[in-house]
Amino acid sequence: MVRRRHTRLFVPLRGSILRVLSSTPAEFLALETQVVVHPFVTRAEGDDVIISNPSHSVILAIPSEGLGVLEHLAAGRTLGETRELYRQQHGILPDLDEFLNELAQEGFVSFDGQAARSIAAASSARTGRRYHLERFPQAIAEHIFSPVTLTVCMLIIAVGVTLCAIDPELIPSPAALVFEPSQWIAAVLVAVLSVAAVFLHELAHLVAARSAGIPARMSIGTRLWIVVAETDMTGIWLASKSQRCLAFLSGSLVDLTSAACLLVLLVAGRHGWVPLGSTGHHIVQALVFVSLTRVLWQLYLFVPTDLYYVLGTLLNCRSLLQDTQAFLSNLAARVVPRLPTTDQSNIPRHEMRVVRVYAVIWCLGRLLAFGSLFLITLPVLVGYAALLVGGVLGESDSGQLLTSNPILQVVAVGVQVIGITIWLRGSFRAWRSS
Questions:
Q1: Are 267 and 159 in a shared domain?
Q2: Do 174 and 237 form a contact (C-beta atoms < 8 A)?
Q3: Are residues 87 and 68 in the same domain?
Q4: Cα–Cα dist 280/270, whole Å
Q5: Residues near 193 by Cβ (< 8 Å), separated by ≥ 6?
Q6: Which end of the chain is more exposed for a tag (fewer CB within 10 A), N or C?
Q7: Secondary structure (3-state) at 53
């Protein structure tokens, strides 16, 4: 009956199909059990109700009838009285044990039994969360992402697209990232500005979330083996769909606006309106390429990118990635019966249709990603490492370009190695726990 934002944990009121707390005896919740319902906020969405704790650190989706159960319990009724009221309203007698146990694990309810209180205490210890810029004024955030600001950004992007349509050579190639050894200062400047642009991208998500009254926090994570910056704005699922889409797309909006401004600067430099010089022109080209690359990354829908969340929002599929992985796992179990399966009978038909289509995208994307890993990324990393070691030891003249600024090379290779290591460790842990 409970659906997480990312992982659907569905326990129907009409019967028990999932043991959430397998170690809990069947008589754990007696009919006279008094359930304490902790404060939470809600938002109706279709047949579901999104509920969140006050800190917005835990978001669940429950059927609308589940909210009625919580309201009865919050009014002081016992579990038995609540079950009888549900029977009178819906004509069936529900099994609420797993529903309430799952809510207890997430800190939404607790019981009058000592064992249940210990479960609730353990879960409440992980619901607290500190948010970055939590006190950023919502009024200022609303002004930043006002219709006027969004219109100006769209006009700037339109100018950039028009310039590229008139002169396609404005779009830089990957060669824009190649700097001569004598230009190492320019290379460092591009690296620093690129990191700043990533921070600005994530800050845009954070401010857009604040404009909807939702706290957010920035951190470092991975998408497969790629290290990425990310913004946790779990509470955004309590906002309207338009506010959610704005929060998800705000980073790409900043990237596209920045790229368009830089393209205008390139054109101005070509016509002599701005004295860029050859090095300045090269730096601007590199920054345009980096900005556009960040936007292209959002098209990788087979991982949780910003565009993926927009797609899930518009299609009303809050757990699209997890449902798809479960769907593919169930297909694999048909071939290998020993593999575990997931009951997906609770997923609405329209969501399952989306899941089947997305499964094709997921498979093709993973094939492309792993192909690039083994055919491009790993050979390049090995080649760079060999050139770097050979250049440092003086055994390879071909390492001169790399060793002209070894710090940048070590950082670039190190970040990729760290990403692969984190991914391998996470995959190994998931395999052991399965």
A1: yes
A2: no
A3: yes
A4: 11
A5: 287
A6: C
A7: coil
Of 74, 107, 124, the position where a domain reaches its end is: 124
- Per the structure, the count of domains in the chain is 3
Contact between residue 241 and residue 235 where contact means Cβ atoms under 8 Å apart? no
CB 160 within 8 A of CB 255: no
Give the pLDDT confidence score for residue 16 in this predicted structure. Answer: 27
d(CA 420, CA 219): 18
Neighbours of 278 (CB within 10 A): 9
Residues 415 and 351 in one domain: yes
Residues 158 and 215 in one domain: yes
Reduced to 3 states, what is the DSSP secondary structure of residue 423?
A: helix
Below-70 pLDDT ranges, the chain: 1-29, 112-132, 224-225, 380, 383-385, 387-413, 430-431, 433-434
The continuous run of DSSP H or E covering 329 comes out as helix 320-335
Q: Are 35 and 109 in contact (CB under 8 A)?
A: yes
Task: Mark whether 287 and 320 lie in a shared domain.
Answer: no
Residue 394 gets the label, from left (phi > 0), alpha (psi -120 to 50) or beta, of left
Domain co-membership, 325 together with 296: no
Q: Give the global pTM.
A: 0.78
Residue with tokens 């190649």: 178
Residue 306 lies in a domain: no
CA distance 205 to 243: 11
- The β-bridge partners of 111 are 35
Residue by residue, DSSP assigns 283-322 as HHHHHHHHHHHHHHHTT-TTS--HHHHHHHHHTT-TTHHH
- For residues 252 and 295, membership in a common domain is answered with yes
Closest to 196 measured CA to CA, from 242, 255, 250: 255
278 and 156, same structural domain?
A: yes
User: What pLDDT is stored for residue 27 in this prediction?
Assistant: 43
Task: Name every residue whose Cβ is closer than 8 Å to that of residue 128 and which is 6 or more positions away in sequence.
Answer: 55, 57
Task: Record the tokens describing residue 387, joined without a space.
Answer: 């050139």
Q: Determine the residue type at 71.
A: E
What are the tokens at 359?
């499964």
Residue-wise DSSP of 235-249: GGGGS-HHHHHHHHH
What confidence score (pLDDT) does residue 328 get?
Answer: 94
Q: Which residues form the domain of 342?
A: 315-434
Asked whether the beta carbons of 218 and 132 are under 8 A apart, the reply is yes
Count of alpha carbons within 13 angstroms of residue 272, beta-carbon side? 0
Determine the Cα–Cα distance for residues 286 and 292; give it in Å rounded to an integer.
10
Predicted local distance difference test score (pLDDT) of residue 411: 63
Q: Is the dihedral of CA 86, 89, 93, 96 positive or negative?
A: negative
Quote the CA–CA distance of 266 and 170 in Å, as a whole number: 8
**Selection from 26, 5, 420, 25 nearest residue 224 by Cα:** 420
The DSSP H or E segment spanning 63 is strand 59-63
Q: In Å, how far from its chain's centre is CA 141?
A: 21
